[in-house]
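User: Hello! I'm new to structural biology and keep hearing that structure can be predicted from sequence alone. Could you demonstrate with DNA-binding response regulator? Please show me the input and the output so I can see what each looks like.

Assistant: Of course. The first part below is the input, the amino acid sequence of DNA-binding response regulator. The second part is the output, the predicted structure written as tokens.
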Amino acid sequence: MIRVLIADDHPVVRQGLRTFLDLQDDLDVVGEAADGAEALALVESLAPDVLLLDLRMPVLDGPGTLARLAGREGGPRVLVLTSVGDPEDVAPALRAGAAGFLYKDVDPGTLVQAIRTVHGGQVLLAPEAAGAVLSAAPGAPAGPVAPADPASPAPPRRGAGPVAPLTGRERQVLALIASGRSNREIARELAVAEKTVKTHVSNVLMKLGVQDRTQAALYAVRHGLA
């Protein structure tokens, strides 16, 4: 059973989330908080597995809550769930330790799956969130970037930048990796052979200095590489 704590300053939102999430056999909403300070207290007393965290709250906001949680051992996985659409909020939340970033217009079924994904140790970004971060990264290609759905597992190592600059094609592949696409799907999207995609993926991993494609996606988001 996944223990979920909801932190949002709107009672209607909290009640709506609780009503829906409590219908899931593997989810248990153990508490609700109206601000970050209350959320921190409930984290201590209830030990939730996943914290659904709004960014804009009174007393202590979402970023402040993330900062306080960052110094704690064994805290919950934090899934930001916000109505704020500013792409500049995404990267700081990830750097502060958020394991996911979604907007409140998300489909209910997607939210449930996101909670499970985050609880399982992976990182998940809304399409708009990942696309905005990747497209704003230094050296990112102009124009729209492929959206990101369930992305990558636990935080990769933090190290230096890539060994060599990514080519334009490698940046496209990286964006599609971040969107959760398989090699076959990337090949179809770029109209190239799957073997060619595998080569590009290998080059991306080598240049970023990470071990697998999922680490590459999160590394790109957190370090502004694309």
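User: So the tokens describe the shape?

Assistant: Right, they're a compact way of writing down the 3D structure. Reading them back into a model, for example: The two ends are 37 Å apart (CA to CA).
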